[in-house]
Design goal:
Helix content is about 40%, strand content about 15%. The chain contains 9 helices and 9 strands. The chain is flat. Strand 6 and strand 7 form a beta hairpin. The strands form 2 sheets. A 5-stranded antiparallel β-sheet has the order 3-2-5-8-9, with no helix packed on it. By secondary structure, it is α+β, with helices and mostly antiparallel strands.
């Protein structure tokens, strides 16, 4: 004949937790590893001996974590545990108060630390009130401070004007075109005007790709143009888009990227405008065959 341990409940939350664990095919070792509850406390929970735990907080907290793992309502289980603890105390005639957890009693060092904090707080309040009621002559001159700030602002403006005289356009960035992933797993595909693939992968965070200088009409296909930082010769230029969308056949030469940030009809700095009466691009040229397209969905992995 099997005998239950002292304090074991024949019905209630504990047996329900055990039945739920066995129905899921879990062992006590697995539950202890998943919930970080010591195995001896799990046995106590399943036996319904909640009052033998260090306190009500431990009992309800352990029961809540156990119920959540088994897919039960943790709030309902915690309320039932409290009710069973109260009922068990009333039956045993135990006092209604809970003994304090020794681990929660402040140590002597903590008490001294709290006293030091109070002393520092009082000293800080004393100096604050002393400054508050000090004569106004001790305050710094706001007029002199404003004059110093104005002088520094004028000096900075003069240096900026000397570095970039009025009427002189800023030099267009030149150098290699580099794409940097601003997020993890940004899918990109680089290829030239003939369709030859240059690079295709999911770029890691902060991973960079430099467009080959000898690539003929390099193009880009991606679903996250908003997550790609673009630099030309080390100088950052505007991103292709501000939201995630599929962009395909996007020219990624330095001239094309600079032209994207210019108003319509305005040539990019450093670009040579076409001569009057020039010949338009041939119908079969890469510029006429590849037109960027954008839709609000991500590309499938290639």
């Amino acid at each position: 004949m099997n005998e239950q341990p002292e304090g074991t409940a024949t019905g209630g939350v504990g047996p329900e937790l055990r039945a739920g664990r066995e129905a899921r095919g879990l062992s006590l070792e697995q539950v202890a590893a998943d919930t970080r509850i010591p195995q001896r406390h799990l046995v106590t929970l399943e036996n319904g001996a909640f009052n033998t735990l260090p306190g009500r907080t431990y009992a309800t907290g352990f029961a809540r974590s156990y119920a959540k793992l088994l897919g039960m309502d943790p709030d309902v289980i915690a309320d039932r545990v409290r009710a069973e603890m109260i009922e068990a105390r009333e039956q045993d005639g135990a006092p209604s108060f809970e003994p304090g957890d020794p681990a929660r009693v402040p140590s002597r060092g903590l008490a001294w630390l709290a006293l030091a904090a109070v002393v520092l707080l009082l000293l800080g309040g004393f100096f604050f009130m002393r400054t508050l009621f000090a004569p106004a002559a001790e305050l710094p001159s706001l007029v002199e401070q404003q004059q110093q700030e104005d002088a520094a602002r004028r000096a900075a403006l003069a240096r900026q004007q000397a570095a970039n005289p009025a009427g002189q356009p800023a030099a267009a960035p030149a150098g290699p075109v580099v794409f940097t992933a601003m997020e993890e797993g940004v899918w990109v595909k680089f290829y030239d005007a003939s369709g030859r693939q240059l690079m295709q992968k999911q770029m890691a965070l902060n991973e960079q790709y430099q467009v080959p200088a000898d690539a003929q009409g390099p193009l880009l296909w991606t679903g996250r143009p908003d997550a790609l930082r673009i630099t030309i010769g080390g100088r950052e230029v505007p991103r292709l888009a501000e939201d995630d969308m599929i962009m395909r056949d996007v020219p990624v030469t330095a001239e094309a990227l600079l032209a994207r940030g210019q108003p319509a009809g305005t040539p990019a700095a450093g670009a040579t405008p076409a001569a009057s009466g020039g010949t338009p691009a041939a119908a079969g040229s890469p510029a006429s065959r590849f037109v960027p397209a954008a839709v609000s969905s991500r590309p499938a992995a290639q």
